[in-house]
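notes to self, project folder thing:

trying the whole complex as one job this time. last attempt i did each chain seperately and stitching them together was a nightmare. two parts in total, labels are on each line so i dont mix them up again. if this works i'll redo the older ones the same way
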Amino acid sequence: MRINLVLELLDVPGQLVSVLEPIGNLGANLVTVIHKRDYKTDTGKVPVQLTLEGEFEDLKNVVERFEDLGITITEIDDVILKEKISTILFGHIIDQDLRDTMDRINALDGVLIVGCEIKLNGEDKSTALINIESDVGLKQVVFDRIAEIAEEKELLVINEV
Amino acid sequence: MDECKVIIMGFGAVGQGVANAISMKKDLIKDKTGVTVKIVAAADSSSSAISQDGLDEELLVKTKKEEGKLSAYPEFGSDKNGADVLDAVEYDCLIEATPTNIIDAEPAFSLTLKAFEQGKDVVTSNKGHLALKFKEVIDAAEKAGVQFRYEASVGGAMPIINLAKETISSCNIKSIKGILNGTTNYILSRMTAEGSDYEVILKESQELGIAETDPTQDVEGIDAACKTVILANSILGIDATYSDVKVTGISQISSQAIDLAKKDDYLIKLIAEVSPDNLQVSPRLVKRGSSYDVSGTLNMATIKTDLADEVSVIGLGAGSLETASAMLTDLISILKNKN
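result (full assembly):
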C-alpha cells in the first residue's frame, strides 16, 4: 500500500536526511519526495511531501518513528492533522497580562500559539492578531478557552467564521 | 378569487415601495395568478386614505411625498389611523410595513392579530413582533387559518426564508451564517478599503443616509439579532426570542484590527450565526474571496444543509422597491395558494 504524508521540517541542514533515513531502515520504500525550500509555513518551517510504499505495519512504524522524532505531520493521505486558527483580541491586552493569556492557550493539549502581532495605541486599548496551530478537532476547545479568558479580562474577541 | 383588496399599513419607504411595485406589477400579477390587486386603504402613523373602489397607487405616493400625510389624498383622505382602518373597509390581505419596534412590538403586533381575527392574510416587513413573539404570532395565524408571510423581514430583497422553506425543502437546514445588516457591512467595507476610523465612516454614512441619526439598532447588532431570531424560529425551528441571542456590535472595531486581519488575508464582518447551539451576532474574521466577502450595503447568507451542502445567497438588504419586491413575492404566493 501507499501513503502520502505532509511533514514540516526546520529549515536547517541535515533535517531532510534525518527524515529519509528511518524510511528504508523500517522496510518502507520512498516513492516521491517534494521539498520546496523557498516556501515557509507560519512557523518558519518547510513543508515536505512524501509518498511511501510498503506493508501496513512498516508504514505504521515509519509514522510512529516520525512522531518519536518530534517531526510535525500535518497531513496523512490528504487528511489534515493540524488546524490553523486566527483570532483577533481587542482591549487592554498587555495590562491584562499577555503572558498569562498566551500561557493559558498553550496549556491546552495539542495547541500552540505560533504567531502574535500587536498594535499598540498609546494608553488606549490595543489589538492583537494571534495565530494558533492545533490538532484536528480542537478548534472549539481553543475558541472556548479564548472566550473564557476574554470574558475575564474584558477583551473583545473576533473569531473566524 | 379574481380580485384581492389590500390595505397597506405604514407608508414610509417600504409602504411607498409596495404601492409603486403594485403599480408596476399589477399586470404581471394578473397574468401569474388571474387576480387583480387593488389598494383599498393605505395608512401612515396619523392618517389614511380609504376607498372601497380602490386608490391610485401613484397618487398615494405623490400625496405622501408632497403633503406629508395621507389624509390629504383627494376625496378619500381620512383621519382614521391604526387598527380603525382595518374596520373601515372590506379587504383580503394586510400589507404591514410599520416601523420595527423591539420594545413592545407595536403597532405591528396588534394590527397583525386583528387582521388574523378578521380572517385576513398578512404580509409583513416588520421584525419587532417576530423577534419578540414569534410563536404567538404564528400560532394565531394557524388558529385563524390564514396565511402569514414575512420574507421581507430578513435580508430585504435577498430571498432566504422562502428559499430555505420552499425551494430547498428536501434538505434539513443545519445552520445559517450571514451578513444580515447592510449599514454595518457598508461601514466595515469602507473602513477596510480606506483604512479610516469607525467614527469617521459612521459620520459619513449618516450624511449619506445609509446610517440613521441614531445608529444604535444597526451598529450594536440589534437589527441583525432580530433577524437571527426570525431565522432561528422559522427555518431551524428553534423556539428562541431576542434575549437568547449573544450580541456584539461593531462600534469597538478599530482600523488597527482591520489592518491586522488583512495581514492574514481576512476581512472583519458582522456575522449572524444561527444554529441549534449558537445564536450569535458578532464581528468575525472571514477569508477574503470567500462567500462572506461581499461589500457595500449587500447582505448575504450561507445555508448549511444535509443534502445540498452549502447554498449561498447575496442581495440588497434594504431599499424601498427592493424590500417591496419581497413583499410582493409573498403576496403572489398567497394568491397562488388560494386559487
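what i see at first glance: The beta strands of chain A are 2-9, 29-35, 46-53, 72-76, 79-80, 82-91, 111-119, 126-135, 156-159.
need to look closer tmrw
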